[in-house]
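Task: complex structure prediction.
Instruction: return structure tokens for all chains below.
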Amino acid sequence: MEKNKKTILGNFMCHIYLIFLTIIAGFPLVWIILSSVKETGELTSNPTSFWPKSFTLSNYIHVLNDLGFARNISNSILIALATTVIAITISAMAAYGIVRFFPKFGNLMSKALIMTYMFPPILLAIPYSLVMAKAGLVNTRLGLIIVYLSFSVPYAVWILVGFFKTVPIGIEEAARVDGANKFEVFIRIVLPLVAPGIVATAIYTFINVWNEFLYALILINSTDKMTVAVALKSLEGAEILVWGDMMAASALVVIPSVIFFSIIQKRIAGGLAEGSVK
Amino acid sequence: MFVKKERNLTRWIFVLPALLVVGMLLIYPVFSSIYYSLTSKHLIKQSYSFIGFKNYIYVLQDSAFYVALLNSIKWTVLSLTGQILIGFSAALALHRVVKFKGIYRTLLIIPWAFPSIVIALSWKWILNGVYGYVPNLLFDLGLTTERLQFFSDANLVFMTLVFINVWFGAPMIMVNILSALQTIPKDQYEAAKIDGAKRWQSFVHITLPHIKIVVGLLVVLRTIWVFNNFDIIYLLTGGGPANLTTTLPIYAYNMGWGTKFLGRSSAVTILLLLFLLVVTGVYFTVIRKWEKEES
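Output:
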């Protein structure tokens, strides 16, 4: 009886704690959305009123049309899509290659990937900006796509190795006996088996590129080429009047990230710390 | 003979593109940074020459470098401590509850998806000294005598940044520890219970040993990430007020893109990398010892 009471109380405390954390975790997103649909006057006159008195989409319209943010969104989509397609193609091949043909080196390669994770982005930024200047790729979307492979490929290889390890080799051997070559086996047999993992990794790559700030800041300098992250930074002025615009633009950037991330989190999370080093 | 050749060649075709990416975009830039750190390379001026260790000597004699180094260590230690405490406790609570588990989990990981610029803008707006929701709420409730200036008050600014970084980083720790907790066989707890072990004893002797390695690995990964992080501080305070929040990546950025001395800036980033190599080297030694104990 005594034990039971303790357990119920413990569970209750856990719920209280989790609700408290959820409020803190979710508040910025809620506040971005609520602020983005408030009139400018309301944002500044009554800071602690929670619900909007009047609902307006004028901030969104202003950001998308007058400030050219629609252009930045399409830049980011283009860059993120291109990076994702290239990175996933390269990484899927490499991860499969490591698992199937270099089992001995697999561990070493994973360690090498962790090593590259150590390279500070601020360190890489200097040679990138110099090389891109030489190659005439400063202020181009292609330049950013190339630079973005630097973190998306190691990440994706790392996650995908875990997925490819789950494919039983027997299935492949049967196909090889039927006369399929390595590439046919890889594309027709193995890829469909790990498709869910590949899709999740692709979405993860997309979000990482969509969210990236430092390289975009250093390599892009004209407003029409900017990604959403840098365009958002440039919106930030000292004026009070722009908070509504900034929250609307922030909502446009963060809501897709949150939605996609919650779709894939079960597949990706946990794999980061587990499958990588063992 | 011929078959073997074919096998070796296709093996390499699979991994070659990734090796090229790593070689050209990661290995080569690091070596070129090492080279530039030994030259008088400038962002605008074309000509530069080899000057040996002059950049390193300059940096190591600059008092601002030590301020940035101390800030970096403070930033990393405080952020990580907070992230582990919150992430670990949240994982334990989540592991224990049955109802609403999925909902909690989905909502709790929201910060993880935030781009750094949105982290910065949303918190700047929430904590804004004039129109911010939180300073006004605290003031209206009579908890503070004036509206707190979270980003300009020298006593508050560092802890504000650490709080925001904990808010961002704790979910990732939580999810990874939770998945480690779920791999612990339940019957071990049952057996301990029958032997009369108390809850805390089970925690110390069963839970902790099982998740030690995952936690160790998380500490390595998060140390690297937090130490290298440029965006969050740059976007929230730019390193101010008065360099109070300037960490090494910000210091390096200001040197390279502010004063335009790329050679010096490269020297700073190489020192940053060396520091990380030493720290992670120590970490991995500890983790390897743990792994040996297990097997």
